Amino acid sequence: MNTTSASPLHVSSTIARSGQRALVLGGGGSTGNAWLIGVIAGLYDAGLDVTTADLTVGTSAGATAAAQLAGAPPGELYEATLVAPPQRQNRPSRSGPGRDPGTSVADHLDRIRTIIAASEDAADMRRRMGSSALAMAADSDGSWQTMWRATVASRLPSQDWPERSVLITAVDARTGDPAAFDRHSGVDLADAVAASCSSGQPFMIGDNAYIDGGYRSNAENADLATGHERVLVLAPLGGRSLVPERWGTHLSAQVEALRSSGSRVETVFPEDDAGHLFGANAMDVSLRPPAARAGHDQGRALAQRLSELWR
Fold first, then answer.
1. Section 195-215 average pLDDT
2. Which of 107, 121, 250, 293 has its CA 20 to 30 A from that of 302?
3. Residue 105 domain-assigned?
4. What is the Cα Rg of the chain in Å?
5. What stretch of H or E contains 272?
6. Of 18, 50, 85, whose CA–CA distance to 295 is shortest?
7. How far is 80 from 128, CA to CA, in rounded Å?
8. For the chain, what is the domain count?
9. What is the 3-class SS of 86-128, one letter each residue?
10. In angstroms, rounded to a whole number, what is the distance separating the alpha carbons of residues 85 and 36?
11. CB atoms inside a 10 Å sphere around CB 36
12. Would residue 281 count as lying in a domain?
């Protein structure tokens, strides 16, 4: 585990070149991760390899997917998602990473909604979310950090950063500043992913504390693809957001900004008949296989249309 101070990038540090392709993988819990893998494997099986992106942006479940795809082929990852892991006995199945063992997804969402309602804007929300996470950590025995890091590392086929550009998003819990890690940040890949997936308690990297990358801007953070000519956004949550639209951080606003700057953008959301697999059920690991299959079917069906963007 990396014990040095992290050196996260900020949006202004992201170098993008026209003509390049960006793949944006959004958050969405355990089922969202399975759906992302399924879509990419379906595209691959139909002859479209989007893992060759010049930039991959991963947030929360998308951060896990980005790291997994850096270490194994899509088909291998897809096959693994078709076998649901057993429910963990030391935590209710609907609890998410970094939360109290007795906290349900519904309770977690209520906490987030309360913080958002008290916030003036996105920056204020991030600060408040960080303060809440730090307070949660102060009431814990500290064992979660080690267990969560080990859990995340066990999900990654490789512990090494890929040579190609991958950005893993997070938020500094103490300052509320947005962050994004890459292979030049001096942070282990597993630590970066663990931080990006920490929706409750903060994850420590050296002396710094980080929370879920979904708090940075939205569940996708598509703004990090600015400057790339072609952008493909895979969004398990369908671009939905709990924050007010007037904050200007919704995926729709980020896509509009990308297009206004000259990028060609395609977004892919789960089909309506698969909606029950996400949201409140996102942490139900028994739903990973159907989520992956739904994504795979969707990827195969979309391959021809998306090839016009990608090739």
1. 97
2. 250
3. no
4. 18
5. none
6. 50
7. 37
8. 1
9. CCCCCCCCCCCCCCCCCCCHHHHHHHHHHHHHHCCCHHHHHHH
10. 17
11. 32
12. no
Residue 129 CA from chain centroid, whole number: 17
* pTM of the predicted protein model: 0.91
Per the CB < 8 A criterion, the answer to whether 208 and 6 are in contact is yes
What is the C-alpha to C-alpha distance for residues 229 and 18, in angstroms, rounded to an integer? 5
What is the per-residue pLDDT across 246-292, written as a single tens digit (0 to 9) for each? 999 999 999 999 999 999 999 999 999 999 999 889 999 999 999 99
- List all residues 6 or more positions away from 248 whose beta carbon is below 8 Å from its beta carbon: none
Residue bearing the bigger pLDDT, 108 or 187: 187
Residue whose C-alpha is closest to residue 179's, from 152, 141, 217: 217
DSSP element (H, E) containing 203? strand 203-205
- How buried is residue 141: exposed, middle or buried, by Cβ count under 10 Å (0-12/13-18/19+)? exposed
Does residue 44 sit within a domain? no
Nearest 5°: CA angle at 206, between 203 and 211? 25
CA dist 168 → 14, 120, 234, 280, 294 (Å): 12, 26, 15, 24, 25
Q: Supply the range of the domain harboring residue 175.
A: 21-33+53-71+138-271
Task: Evaluate whether residue 6 is within a structural domain.
Answer: no
Neighbouring CB atoms inside 10 A of 216's CB total 28
CA-nearest of 61, 35, 240 to 168 is 61
Query: Among residues of the chain, what percentage have pLDDT more than 90?
Result: 83
